[in-house]
Each structure stands twice: as C-alpha cells, then as structure tokens.
Amino acid sequence: MSFRLAPTVEAQGFRLEAHESVGSTNALALDRARAGDPGKLWIVSKKQESGRGRRGRVWATLEGNLAATLLVVTTGELRMAATLGFVAGLALADALDAVVPKGRIAVGLDGAGAGRNRFELKWPNDVLASGAKLSGILLESAMLDGGRFGVAVGIGVNVVAHPEDLPYPATSLKALGANCDAETLFLALSDAWSENAGLWAEGRGLTAIRERWLRRAAGLGGEVAVRIDGNVVRGTFETIDEDCRFVIRDSAGKMITVAAGDVHFGAVASAGAQ
Predict the structure, then answer these.
(1) Into how many domains does the chain fold?
(2) Is the CB of residue 68 less than 8 Å from the CB of residue 88?
(3) What is the pTM of this model?
(4) DSSP character for 54?
(5) For residue 44, is it within any domain?
(6) H-helix or E-strand spanning residue 200
(7) Does residue 2 belong to any structural domain of this protein?
(8) EC number(s) in its UniProt entry (predicted)?
(9) Which domain holds residue 115?
(10) Are 133 and 243 within one domain?
(11) Which long-range contacts (CB under 8 A, 24 or more apart) does 164-167 make?
(12) Residues pairing with 18 in the sheet
C-alpha cells in the first residue's frame, strides 16, 4: 500500500508528497514554504534520518515508522498558530482510535493512575500508550514574504519500532500488539486532521480544542514535576489554561502557569524529575 490522502481532504485542496526516506519532513516542508508553496501540503515518509524533537533533541524515524509533516501557510498570529500542536495531538489520537482494534491497547500512566483513554496526550506534544511515548509532535516556523509565515506541523509515530536508549519509557504499535502500518495510520490521520483543524478554525475554536484535549490529558489531577531551565516545579496537574499553558497547583495551593518545560508524572515526579 502506498501513502494516500483521505478523499475528504483531497476535496479540500490538501496535497501529498511522499518519500521512501528523508532527512527531515519538517525541513522539507519549510523549504517548500520558502519556495512559494501555498500550504495544505503533507510530506510523509517511513524513514527519517535527521529528524528533531523539542529543544534540538534527536527524533529518529526507523524504517516502517511514520514521519509526517503538514505545511500550514498563514497570515494569522504566530502565537495562535503555536496551538496547532494541540490540534495535531487530537488528530493523531483520533486516528489511532480508528485504526487500532479495541482491546489491543491497555493504558496506564506511569504512576499517575489508570488512564481513561487508550491513547493519552502528554503536555505539550507527546502521545502516550500504556504510559510510554508512542509519538512526538514538533512545530517549526519560518517567516515568509508579505507578512506570512509557514508552520511545519511535524508528527512522528513509532509504528513498527521504538528507540531503546531513552531516559523515559517508549513503545511502538507493534510492541503493543497492534497490526497497523504507516500508510494506514496516515490515511486516518489526514482525515482526523481535517476534522480537528475545522474545529480549531484558525484559533477561533481554541476553547473547544482545549476541552477536547483535557478529556484525553495524561496525568490530569495527578502528581507532577516540571523541569524549567534547570529548576523543578512540583505539584498537581490542575488544567491547561485558555492559551493551552500547563497549570500546576503547588502544596500551598498556589497556581503556577508554565509556558514551556519537561513534564514528569507520578513516580518519576516523586523521584526528582532527573
């Protein structure tokens, strides 16, 4: 089976560029934007050799996994475009629900209690299954002519394999017993993106996206530690605010809002969030 878009999104003008192997789907998408591409372009591959995660970390896409980037070109606020990561998380979780048979995935977050969903969203950009990282999402942007900017919404999913040498649990669909290939998952993802992006509505529907995201939130109400520039803030994961920032209630009852940081739940949070 080859990569293809869902018919619903083809009708909306989305296009597809598929590769056997790439350096980085995000880098390619931003190259296309600088060359004048109008956006609504998906770039996909089953192997990515120089992908990146947050803060410049390496994110390898091994053969048979999914590396997918959607190029969005807009004149809106960059601050609002940054919330597309939450749209991406919801779209991927919906796609996974659609293609993975029920009963195959049992979710339980690492020390934060039993999960309510088979696939949960960890702030700000991970999708978890059985408490382990299944997918990472990375947004990158580039300024363009005419007051426009391009946003590369990168989504990497461990379909058939996952890295072993990580400081946190990771997994793949194959390791979880799900028989799904990258092409099937992408077909469902392209469809689910259309639905969730329509709800987001250029940021006008962010309240609805936030509410949907919270229903899938990993660790909500549980013990949490957030590492911010070398410091660790501890407390209870209370919510995300109207701008999708992480909100912690500390032991004194004070609400602390976090715009960026590394989140650790349950036993890891208690141990020190190394």
Answers:
(1) 2
(2) no
(3) 0.90
(4) G
(5) yes
(6) helix 182-200
(7) no
(8) 6.3.4.15
(9) 7-215
(10) no
(11) 166/133, 167/274
(12) 44
Q: Would you state the structure tokens that stand for residue 112, as one six-digit string?
A: 């934060």
pLDDT at position 52: 59
Report mean pLDDT in 10-residue bins for the chain, 274 residues. Answer: 92 96 95 97 90 55 90 91 96 96 59 63 94 94 94 96 84 92 97 96 96 96 90 95 96 94 72 49
- Burial code (b: 16+ CB inside 10 Å, e: under 16) for 136-162 equals bbbbbbbebeeeebbbbbbbbbbbbbb
Question: At a CB cut-off of 8 Å and minimum separation 6, what does 43 contact?
Answer: 17, 18, 19, 22, 25, 28, 29, 32, 68, 69, 71
> How do 223-228 and 15-19 pair as beta strands?
unpaired
By the 10 Å C-beta count (0-12 exposed, 13-18 middle, 19+ buried), 226 is classed as: buried
Q: Report CA dihedral (271, 163, 236, 203) to the nearest 10 degrees.
A: 160
**pLDDT of amino acid 110:** 46
137: number of CA atoms within 13 Å, CB side?
Answer: 23
Q: What are phi and psi of 218, to 5 degrees?
A: -75, 135
DSSP 42-59: EEEES-BSS-B-GGG-B-
Please report whether residue 1 resides in a domain. no
CATH of the domain at 236: 2.30.30.100
Burial of 211 (0-12, 13-18, 19+ CB in 10 A): exposed
Nearest to 24 by CA among 64, 3, 55, 53: 53
Task: Please identify which residue in the block is written with the tokens 């036993």.
Answer: 267
* Phi, psi for residue 221 in degrees, rounded to 5: 85, 0
Residue where a domain stops, chosen among 215, 240, 257? 215
Identify the H or E element spanning 192: helix 182-200
Tokens of 245: 């920032």
Assess contact for 7 and 35: CB atoms under 8 A. Answer: no
Report pLDDT for 268. 52
